[in-house]
Amino acid sequence: MSKFLKILAPAAGGTASVLTLAYVLVDQFVVDIPAPARGIVAISPASAQTVETPAAASAEDGFGLGRPALDPEIVAWDIDIRPDGMGLPVGSGDVFTGEEIFIEKCAVCHGDFGEGAGRWPVLAGGDGTLAGEDPNKTIGSYWPYLSTVYDYVNRAMPFGEAQSLSPDEVYAITAYLLNLNYIVEDDFVLSNETFADVAMPNESNFFLDDRAEVELPRFSGEVCMSDCKNEVEIVMRAAVLDVTPETDEGDAPTEEMAASAPDSGDADVEMVAVSTDPAMIEAGEGVFRACKACHAVGEGAANKSGPQLNELVGRPIGGIEGFRYSTVFQDAHEAGEVWTVEALTAFLANPREAMPGTKMSYRGLRDDADIEALLAYLTATGG
Amino acid sequence: MVIKIKGTKPSRRNFLKAAAAAPVAAMAGGQAFAEEADPAIIEKQPWTQFLGDGVDARPYGMPSQYEADVVRRDVPWLTADPVSSVNFTPLHELDGIITPNGLCFERHHAGIAEIDPGQHRLMINGLVDTPLVFTMEDLMRFPRENHVYFLECAANSGMEWRGAQLNGCQFTHGMIHNVMYTGVPLRLILEEAGVKTSGKWILPEGADASAMTRSIPMEKAMDDCLVAFKMNGEALRPEQGYPVRLVVPGWEGNMWVKWLRRIEVGDQPWHHREETSKYTDLLENGQARRFTWEMDAKSVITNPSPQAPITHGPGHMVLTGVAWSGRGTIPRVDVTIDGGENWVQARMSGPSLNKSMHRFYHEFDWDGSPLLLQSRAHDSTGYVQPTKDMLREVRGENSIYHNNGIQTWYVNEEGIAENVEIS
């Protein structure tokens, strides 16, 4: 609990006596307005909201409200499980039974092997990815405690039919999820008795909030108010991605967007824009022939063995509904990644390096000019 | 100031819409002169001449039909299903510090539970002298308090860790609302059951189909948590936990369990899904912070912003925004219009309440040149809102939660605003 007190320290002072004082003061104005601002900020006593003095008082012997809970009522609602096993019901389930139940009740969202369908959570895999650029946080790679799996499946799953599984079914599903993550063997039987034998691999990688030590000192203190920089440069722009939902109906932005088209001759361009040069677009059409067997673009384009490519620049990676993406795309999608020009350029240059595990069997475009032309064509044709 | 612009120019769609709605007037030296008499004045308007609806036409009043665009909005690609998803408060349409009930952002894990208050119960069990059950009527008989608190989702601005992504403060900062709660101090309810000395943690649980749970240390439970049934004077909205929710001032929104049906007292935390798989902050080295409950000080300029461009041209203008801290009040906000070369202290206005949203203004003459707008909150502990790069130095880019970095809006000569990051 010392950690807790440290965290509260800035607000409450860190000692019991100060905590009491802070409670009384909780709604008073504790604003410390710097001298220059005092004249401007008119906070008079009249504008202050009424303060409780003292706060709502405790009753010595209680208020006599409520009634004792009955044992069957507590049993009906007290379903929580803790890492030490507290709350586990008697029961057991094996990996194979778990697989059957999982495929029947869970796979529609999570995939047969926990790989996740569409944007639904991935439950297996991701080992060794936590310190990488695209961490894949699954039960196996991330979750610190097995009890969390049992508790969550039992309280909230299957999605839309919560708390419908029997203890044996939850044990079986949990056993299957462990097996999918290579934490237990195929013949493993999970029960209230074997539960404590299972250790989750990532448990030691969690630590208590240390912002009070690591961040608060670093982010407190004097600030610069004038002549703080010589030059300011925009290094990242949301409009380049353009993933913001349309918020205004009836707008016709296309002409206006075209009118503010990029300056393609700017050699200083850092956030690369797609070329609108007609010659480049024509060259891109030629490059696209190699892609046509699997991908469509343009009006009415549908998914083939690869996803359709309309409005490709700026769209979420792995975001076409109904297309079964490789796990790496689903991971990128989960992470909210978007097809920027840079990401597309890297992917087209070397698909397997840029998106390891991609199902796309194409070795990549060696010539940067081909990539530029292809993107120009895709953008001109598919928006 | 030198502003280097790279890439394409920002979208004009919001600007065009706003400009179309603005009255036409010729500008001269910042002041408008009418060339022709304004029809809005010289022609009789229907509302001036004819009778309107009577008092019984609108038993529960709704905003003007001209405010129909002021709504919560979502980002469909963020989540798999709207039943377990989030939408965003339209901060750019609001002023003052209170969020109207119908505009408070929503985050559900299994949709909105529609609960009959007559069938709702709150159970206290675990390490208590007497496990108790309360009806809503029982709860109403405890002493109540009124407090204004912000509720911010720990994932607010979480889409921006890798760079500017969403164009609009509704989407970058809209997972927050600030309302006045009426409720019973949780302390009184726990005292009624009698917490055993071994009781160090509580586990609040929701009645919805996600049965949301979080572990909360007893010190916080006994300090300022509320079991609230009113927001801004009226019953909680179903999407905010009707008939009763937990209020955990200054701490991440996920802990404010809605549709609260049970509180268990225990001697250690439960480590449930929302405090292990979710709401833990993965750092660059692959290790993750847990129990990052407090919300760091944060601010954002709401106007101008990408959804609220400058449509009036050069001249006197009002810049405004909001700031808050989970550790106290916001005595000061600094504002820059030149990307951080020079800062001025904004004017704070309205009540300054502990763990509540604060409103700031900065009025200035815009000369029509491009602007790089930022705001920087100072909280009552001396903490200063860091830049996004300062945060990334400590946390990397994969922590999802607790992104309180300084937001930058670029405003071009036409008044169009865009979400950017600057050097």
What does this structure look like?
- The complex is a heterodimer of chains A (about 375) and B (about 425).
- Chain A is built from 16 helices and 5 strands.
- Chain A is mainly alpha-helical and about 375 residues long.
- In chain A, α7 packs across α8 (about 165-180).
- The longest helix of chain A has 15 residues, at about 370-380.
- The radius of gyration of chain A is 29 Å and the shape is extended.
- The relative contact order of chain A is 0.09.
- The model of chain A is unreliable at about 1-50 and about 250-270 (pLDDT under 50).
- Chain B contains 8 helices and 26 strands.
- Chain B has a 5-stranded mixed β-sheet. In chain B, strands 8, 9, 12, 13 and 14 form a 5-stranded antiparallel β-sheet that branches.
- In chain B, β6 (about 120-125) and β7 form a beta hairpin.
- The radius of gyration of chain B is 24 Å and the shape is globular.
- At the A-B interface, α1, β1, α4, α7 and β4 of A face β1, α1, β4, β6 and β7 of B.
Envelope shape of chain B: globular
Largest sheet: spatial strand order of chain A: 2-3
Give the helix level of chain A as a range of percent.
25-40%
Q: What pattern of helices and strands is seen along the backbone of chain A?
A: HHHEHEHHHHEEHEHHHHHHH
Distance separating the two termini of chain A: 56 Å
What's the multimeric state? heterodimer
What is the number of beta strands of chain B? 26
Helix count of chain B, per DSSP?
A: 8
Task: Classify the secondary structure makeup of chain A into a structural class.
Answer: mainly alpha
Widest β-sheet, arrangement of strands of chain B:
7-6-15-10-11
Computed Rg of chain B: 24 Å
β-strand amount of chain B: 25-35%
- Quantity of strands of chain A, as a count: 5
Model regions low in confidence, pLDDT < 50 over at least 5 residues of chain B: 5-10, 22-26
Mean pLDDT of chain B: 93
User: Share of helix among residues of chain B?
Assistant: 10-25%
